[in-house]
Amino acid sequence: MADAADAISMARFRAHDLAVTTKADTTHVTDADRAVEQRIRDMLQAERPDDAIFGEEFGSTGDAERQWIIDPIDGTAHYLRGAPIWATLIALVVDHHPVVGVVSAPALGGRWWAAQGQGAWTDVAKPRQIHVSKVRELSDAVLSYNAIQGWDGAGRIDDLVALQRDVWRARSYGDAWSYMLLAEGTIDAVAEFDLKPYDMAALVPVIEEAGGTFTSIGGQLGPWHGSALASNGALHEQLLSRLAR
Questions:
Q1: Are the CB atoms for 200 and 192 separated by under 8 Å?
Q2: What is residue 47's three-state secondary structure?
Q3: Are the beta carbons of 119 and 127 closer than 8 angstroms?
Q4: What are the tens digits of pLDDT across the range 69-128?
Q5: In 3D, which of 143, 159, 139 has the Cα closest to residue 151?
Q6: What 8-state DSSP symbol labels residue 221?
């Protein structure tokens, strides 16, 4: 499914005739978003017809314990401007818990995947298992806060400024890529607001299987609570103590 998605998204990336419209929630959608999700849905319908599907562009279909959650192009704003920081996110959720996650970022030349109990991996041609960092002190940590608008909308700008004073470096690497940098041990934590389940579901298995921890900023497990706090695990309680309300 990731291969099929990459073929469609790369064919339309930076295309002069890319069709862009604005959805009711004021976010953008391109013809590539819709084409990628439709292709994945068609493949699932053929191979797993009894499974439910929830996608960003076409909503929910089916009612089953097994549910596929799809974000066809996470980072559409980057995609439509020609920046390479975007990815297709595919997750399998069983009984409300994400057990398989695939993050495919063809413009970055990267793909990451994980399944429960089987580790987290990258590099399709020569698979390599990945692990989070061992940083234990916030003063040594690198944080990605992603979109400052999300913190502002949540009324948490002061918390973000205070947290940036506690860490070694804070940057906005952006969207799913931040979490994959965390899974590879390049950075140590990611925190952001204003998220939907399809923004997060595929990330959870990759982070957890790499040895990290994924909760909401309030400490709730899973991708269901509108925010994300992901870390290498060693830093998680320190971060929660500064951010949870």
A1: no
A2: helix
A3: no
A4: 999 999 999 999 999 999 999 999 999 999 999 999 999 999 999 999 999 999 988 999
A5: 159
A6: B
